[in-house]
Amino acid sequence: MTSPPALTVHQLAKSVPGGRRLFHNLDLTVAPGEIVAIMGESGIGKSTLLNLVAGLDSADAGTISIAGQALDDRQDDARTIIRRDHVGFVFQAFHILPHLTLAQNIALPLVLARADTAASLARAITMLANVGLPGRGGDYPAQLSGGELQRIAIARALIHDPALILADEPTGNLDPETAERILSLLTTQVRASSAGLVLVTHSDCAAAIADRVLVLGPTGLTPR
Ligand SMILES: Nc1ncnc2c1ncn2[C@@H]1O[C@H](COP(=O)(O)OP(=O)(O)OP(=O)(O)O)[C@@H](O)[C@H]1O
Questions:
Q1: Domain count, the chain
Q2: How many whole angstroms from 77 Cα to the centroid of ligand 1?
Q3: What is the CATH number of the domain that holds 190?
Q4: What value, to the nearest 5°, has the Cα angle with vertex 44 and ends 39 and 46?
Q5: Distance between CA 99 and CA 208 in Å, rounded?
Q6: ipTM confidence score
Q7: What is the pLDDT of residues 36-57, one digit of tens each?
Q8: pTM score, whole prediction
Q9: Mutational pocket test of ligand 1: of 22, 53, 201, 214, the residue with most ligand atoms within 8 Å of the beta carbon
């Protein structure tokens, strides 16, 4: 049996408060294991699109399915559970929590899904090694650089084997060398997990890891 798409967006429409239309009739399908970069001029609505898929904002029209499960016509808590179980986030807005250790931060998606705490922390330790920070589980975020924190964000996004990963400018604040390493790590980890990745970026280097680069405009997404 073939897996359903990691993400299906159909005829999505969104206006900002005040009525200005950002996009309409927007369609997007992301296959398992596929990396899709979304580019486009500043203010066109890239982060808004990601927020709609993430459930942080609601669309005016259209449908969104994650791992074959439609989010529409469900109660809020049912949607929250689908996103919690099937989506990983590498967003500035979901920053690493300063009062939790690195292992606790990475384990958070499993703990929120009520997995066993000891097993979750053990998996977080493995993920830390996978992202090149072995033995750092007891450290706190304040002890890390920006690039190292982004490694933690990637480990946390992947720990629960999500079908879909959403990343908003994952290398935005990093120097070019660190950005290169983070992109390579993200690619390796995504390929290993067969998750679909939607990557919003202005960076040509970041877009270069994608299987497809799409440009967002007022009528939707077009291949670059
Ligand atoms: N809650 C809101 N109220 C009013 N306008 C909003 C709101 N949210 C977003 N916008 C507007 O919607 C437009 C799209 O914003 P968005 O952040 O999605 O663009 P973007 O393409 O990601 O831009 P950038 O590349 O600069 O990050 C912007 O003009 C923004 O001002």
A1: 1
A2: 26
A3: 3.40.50.300
A4: 50
A5: 35
A6: 0.93
A7: 999 999 999 999 999 999 988 8
A8: 0.93
A9: 22
